[in-house]
């Protein structure tokens, strides 16, 4: 990638700021492209495969319902980080700060979550690509001066005024929360029964600056009345639990209101949650709770299995 020194970039910025004309035309270095870990063909959409029918033991009362062909999705491309994940690349079960590698074996991200039989939820944070002499600003790597306390001829207050806001705005690597897997066909969603699901909750933790499994999940699905509700219990006294308010089950998914911090010393915040059922007979459920941009530290993914 063609690198442009920060001295030149700052000179252009200062020159543009001092002019009285319209918007300046500044040449910006090409953004760094994030590699993916897709071991198959790059960026191919998930294929759908027929899965043989099989009987599973559950707590619903419609075990005689025939199982339709189950949409199968073993891979996904995350929205914020453009990193591709494939269920088959990771161990089954709980994942804690697992390195995500590109085709050359270089670590590009860290992942925490839970890789279940039919669903996969987690939180991912991109690794910092820069060394001690570089800084990442808006996906561009800018070289720092070798002279201590000086960059592009700026020192002291000028240095902190120009560089400080840029660094503070982008010092946290990009991160994502996600869920995906083999969705339950709508025709195979149970028609009756009340089922409890228990599992994990994952997100980026501002306290430790890591992605981690940060709590537990419990959801209750009332298939006869097509309702679902639940709770994400977050570890730590100062962290707020997230209540998943009762919502309608529509098709093989659901969407409703998420409330963080009910009966907590910190302020209550409202957001939304969504999710889907996974497995031939809705053996699993996964989803995420999200909040506004200034509250994105509360964003949490979850997955859970039927309690037998």
Automatic annotation (TrEMBL):
<dbReference type="InterPro" id="IPR054843">
    <property type="entry name" value="Slam_hemophilin_C"/>
</dbReference>
<dbReference type="InterPro" id="IPR011250">
    <property type="entry name" value="OMP/PagP_B-barrel"/>
</dbReference>
<protein>
    <submittedName>
        <fullName>Transferrin binding protein</fullName>
    </submittedName>
</protein>
<dbReference type="InterPro" id="IPR001677">
    <property type="entry name" value="TbpB_B_D"/>
</dbReference>
<feature type="compositionally biased region" description="Low complexity">
    <location>
        <begin position="20"/>
        <end position="29"/>
    </location>
</feature>
<feature type="compositionally biased region" description="Polar residues">
    <location>
        <begin position="30"/>
        <end position="46"/>
    </location>
</feature>
<feature type="region of interest" description="Disordered">
    <location>
        <begin position="20"/>
        <end position="81"/>
    </location>
</feature>
<feature type="domain" description="Transferrin-binding protein B C-lobe/N-lobe beta-barrel">
    <location>
        <begin position="189"/>
        <end position="306"/>
    </location>
</feature>
<feature type="compositionally biased region" description="Polar residues">
    <location>
        <begin position="53"/>
        <end position="67"/>
    </location>
</feature>
<dbReference type="Pfam" id="PF01298">
    <property type="entry name" value="TbpB_B_D"/>
</dbReference>
<keyword id="KW-0732">Signal</keyword>
<feature type="signal peptide">
    <location>
        <begin position="1"/>
        <end position="21"/>
    </location>
</feature>
